[in-house]
Amino acid sequence: MENTNVPVISAKDLNLWYGDFKALKSISLDVGEREITALIGPSGCGKSTFLKTLNRMNDLVPGVRIEGDVRLKGEDIFAREMELTDLRRRVGMVFQKANPFPMSIYDNITYGPKLHGVRNKAELDELEQEQQSCADGLQECEAFLTNAAGHLPSIQAQLLKTQNDAEYSAVSNTSQSQDGLVWLSGYLPASETEGFKRAAAQAHWAWAMDDPAGDDEKVPTKVKYNKVTKLMIPVFDILGTVPGYREYDISFWFLGFFTLFFAMIIGDAGYGCLFLLAALVMTLKGKGSSSAVQLLWVLSAATVIWGALTGTWFGLEQAMDVPLLKALVIPTFANYPEYFHVATTTQQNTIMKFCFILGTVQLSLACVMNIRRKLKEKDLSWVSDLGWLAAIDALYFVVLYLVIGQQVNLIPVACVVIAGFLLVVCFGGMSPDKSFAQGLKAGLGDAFTVFLNTISAFGNIMSYIRLFAVGMASLAIAQSFNDMAFSLKGPLVVAAVLVLLIGHGLNVVMGLLSVVVHGVRLNLLEFSGQLGMEWAGIAYDPFKKRDKIKK
C-alpha cells in the first residue's frame, strides 16, 4: 500500500541569495498530496521566489545561489540527473501576467504539446487556429461592449422608467375599493400633514388620517436631523441602520461618543493633522457643505486634541523634546510617561479607568433615557431601569477592583448590585396594560434571565477597554515602523522614507477599520442594547416619480 504520509513537496533549510541579498532564509515546508497550501505575506517577502525554486526557474536568474534541500516525491530536484524539462512539466507555475518565451507566438502555443509528444503538424496547426479564433472572439466582445457603451444613456433612461413603473405597480397593489370608492393607504410624517392637506384641497382628494396602530410593525422611520446630528448621516448610510419607529433617535449621543471613540482609537495627533489636511482639500474643492466633510473636520479636530493630550505625534518619542508639545500633555495620560516622572503602570491604569468611566456614563445614560420615557408613559417598569442604573454604577467599582487593582469596599458595592437586581426582577415585567400582580409574576419568571443580563452588564463595562487596547496597538505599530526607518542610513534613506510612508499609511487604514469594528460597535451594541434598541427600522421612502436611478 502507498504511504500517503510522504509529502509531495518537501523543502528543508532552503536559503537563496540574489547576489549579496538573502531572499529566502531557512525555509522548511512539507506539502502533502491533494493539499491546498497558501503562501501569504507582503509584497517582496519571497513568496514568488520560493515558488520559482520548486521547478528551478530561479536557475535562469543571473547571480542566484541556492543552498538547502528540495524534494519532489522524494527526488532531489537539484540532483544532476534531474531533467529540468521533466521537472517543469510536473511542477507548473501560473504567473500573474502572461510571460511568453522569446520565440514566435506559434512556437509559444505549440511548445507545451510538443513537450508532451505531439509532433503532428496538422494537430499543432489546429491548436494555433483555435488560439487565433479565441483572440478574434475577444476582439469581437471588446467591439460589442464598446458599441454597447454608446447606448448607456438610453439603457439608464429605460432602467429609471422601469423603477418608476415598478413602484407605481407596488403602490397600486395596495389600493382597496368598496362600493365604487377606491383608496390608497400609506404613511405621512406628522411635520408634512399641512402640506398634504393643501395639496389635497387643490387636487380635490378625499382623505382620512389617523395615528399608526400600536401593533403596526411596518411604520417607516424618518429621522429628523438638525445642523449637528446631520453629521451622522454618512455613518448611518454606510452602516445601513435605521432606528425603529418607536425607538430612540440617538444620533446626537451617537455623534458625541463616536467622535471620542474615533479620537482614542486613532490616538495620534499627527494622523489627525493629516485628516484635517484632507478635510481642507475637500473643502477647497467645493465639497465643504457635505455632511461627510463636516464630520471629517470634527473627527480630525478631536483626534488632534486627544493625540496632543497624550503626547502622540506620529508615534515619535522625540516630540516630547518640543516644549510646546510637551506642555499640552496631561501627565497621567502621556504615552511617554517617563518625561513626566509618571510610572508606566499609573499611566496605563489611568487610561483604562477613563475607558471604564466612559462605558459607565454611556450605559447609565441609556438607563436615564429609559426612565424618562417610561415616566412620561406612566409605565411602572421605570423602576427596573433605576435598578439597572444602580447595578451598572456599582459594577464599575468591581471592574476597577479586578482590572487595575483599585482598593474598593466590596460589601456596599455588592449590596447595591443585589438591590438593583431585585428592582429589575420585581418591576421588569410591569407595563401599563398589566396589573401590579401580573407584572410582578412576569418579572419573577425572568429572574434567571436578569441574572445573566447582570453578568452581561459587567462584561459591557469591561468591553470599553478595547479603546485603550486598540489605541496602544496603533502606537506600538507606529513606533515599530519609526524604528525600522531610522535604522536605515546613508544610501538607504529612500527606503527609510518608503517604510515611513507605507508603514504609517497601513497604520491609518487599520485604525479606520478598528473605528468601524470597535467604535461603532460600542454605540450599536452596548449602548443601544441597554436602551432596548434593535435598529430594525424601515427608512421612510415616499412614493414619487424619480428623476434619478435608485441604487
Report on the architecture of this protein.
- This protein is of the alpha+beta class.
- It is 57% helix and 7% strand.
- The protein contains 18 helices and six strands.
- The chain has helices at residues 47-54, 84-90, 105-115, 121-149, 152-172, 193-203, 233-239, 251-266, 269-287, 291-310, 323-327, 344-376, 382-403, 410-427, 436-445, 447-462, 466-486, 493-531, and strands at residues 9-18, 21-31, 64-72, 75-76, 176-178, 181-183.
- The protein has a four-stranded antiparallel β-sheet with strand order 2-1-3-4, with helices on one face. It has a two-stranded antiparallel ribbon with strand order 5-6.
- The longest helix is centred in the last third of the chain and has 39 residues, at 493-531.
- It is extended and about 95 Å long.
Q: Sheet with the most strands?
A: 4 strands, antiparallel
Regions with pLDDT < 50 over 5+ consecutive residues? none
What string gives the helices and strands in order?
EEHEEHHHHEEHHHHHHHHHHHHH
Q: Roughly what percent helix? A: 55-70%
Rg from alpha-carbon coordinates: 34 Å
Number of strands: 6
> Strands of the largest sheet, in order across it?
2-1-3-4
What is the residue-averaged pLDDT?
90
Q: How many distinct helices?
A: 18
Distance between the termini: 60 Å
- Alpha-beta classification: alpha+beta
Q: What portion of residues belong to β-strands? A: 5-15%
Shape: extended
